[in-house]
Design goal:
Elements: H1 2-23, E1 42-46, E2 62-72, E3 77-82, E4 95-99, E5 106-112, E6 129-132, E7 137-146, E8 157-158, E9 163-166
Antiparallel strand pairs: 1-2, 2-7, 3-6, 3-9, 4-5, 4-8, 5-7
Length: 167
């Protein structure tokens, strides 16, 4: 019996030592790709331009600025044009604000790419502004000027200009 007890003890010891090895699970791995495709894209936003609430007789030029905010994917070339606006008689880079009251007069104004320099229009390659996106917001300044002119009747004057980005 002693012999069988020691045999059982040896077998038990062997079994105990083998248990951790047989209890380990096998493992395998798998890989997968994470991907996306970036395409050329741009966003555009514009801020209003206000020449002032209390202009009188227009005997000197009146200036104001606005900004256009552009965000394009890195290395994407873009081109920004400004249409003539909604004022009666506006065409190309000749722009007018129209009166909103009964008098319906107009006030001529100009939009420039740089102060008093090149007029900003909507004909690509001629009078638009181009740039290259860098993936971050870029701010462009629109320089506005009301030139000396015959002063129309007192009224509120307005035009809505559309900025278009091509890329």
């Amino acid at each position: 019996m002693l012999k069988s007890k020691s045999s059982l003890a040896v077998l038990g010891l062997i079994g105990a030592m083998a248990a951790p090895f047989s209890a380990q699970a096998a493992s395998k791995i798998a890989t997968f790709d994470v991907s996306m495709k970036i395409v050329a894209d741009c966003t555009i936003g514009a801020n209003g331009m206000d020449f002032g609430q209390n202009q009188g007789v227009i005997t000197a030029a009146v200036s104001a600025n606005s900004t256009i905010n552009v965000t394009c994917t890195n290395t994407t070339p873009y081109n920004i044009g400004l249409n003539a606006g909604t004022g009666a008689g506006s065409s190309g880079t000749t722009r007018y604000m129209a009166g909103t009251g009964a008098n319906a007069g107009t006030v001529k104004f100009n939009l420039y790419q740089a102060p008093g320099a090149t007029l900003w229009g909507n004909t690509q390659g001629t009078d638009t502004v181009s740039g290259i996106g860098n993936g971050n917001a870029q701010t462009l300044t629109v320089y506005g000027e009301i030139p000396v002119q015959s002063t129309p009747a007192p009224d509120s004057y307005k035009s809505t200009v559309t900025a278009t980005i091509s890329f």
